[in-house]
Specification:
It comes from Gordonia hankookensis. This is DUF952 domain-containing protein. InterPro entries: DUF952 (IPR009297). Pfam families: DUF952 (PF06108). This protein has about 130 residues and is α+β, with helices and mostly antiparallel strands. It has a domain at about 35-115: Protein of unknown function DUF952 (ADP-ribosylation fold), CATH 3.20.170.20. The chain has three helices and eight strands; from the N terminus they run βαβαβαβββββ. The chain has helices at about 25-35, 40-45, 55-65; strands at about 20-25, 35, 50, 70-75, 85-90, 100, 105, 110-115. The strands form three sheets. Strands 1-4-8 form a three-stranded antiparallel beta sheet. The chain has a three-stranded antiparallel beta sheet with strand order 3-6-5. The chain is globular, with a radius of gyration of 14 Å.
Length: about 130
Amino acid sequence: MTGPDEPHVAVDDDRPRLLVHLCTRDEWDTARHAGHREPPSLADAGFVHLSDPGQVHLPANRLFAGHDDLVLLVVDSTRLDAPVVWEPGMPDDPEGMRFPHLYGALPAHAVVEVRTYRPDGTGTFLPPSI
């Protein structure tokens, strides 16, 4: 992990402008009313987990198997107030894959769309088309 004081990538030619964050509908409702989302990872690890839309199925399957109450918060990375650092995920993720970590609260104004995110008939989350 490099941390927020190291060079970061919020938006460039190699990184997507739209990122996603997984949470429940109730968690999003709470965040929307508060004006920001501060999941437990912000206090525990110092960052909010985000994903590229093409990789979000990996943490969804790892962390949320059996859930059918998730939403994808589609985040415009140009609206974020804190640094985004692309860092390695889990050892079983594809080699070289990096995940965006937001080193601050996720502001509600950066969320440009909220989508229901459910597993398919076999219980597997698939990459969404965003």
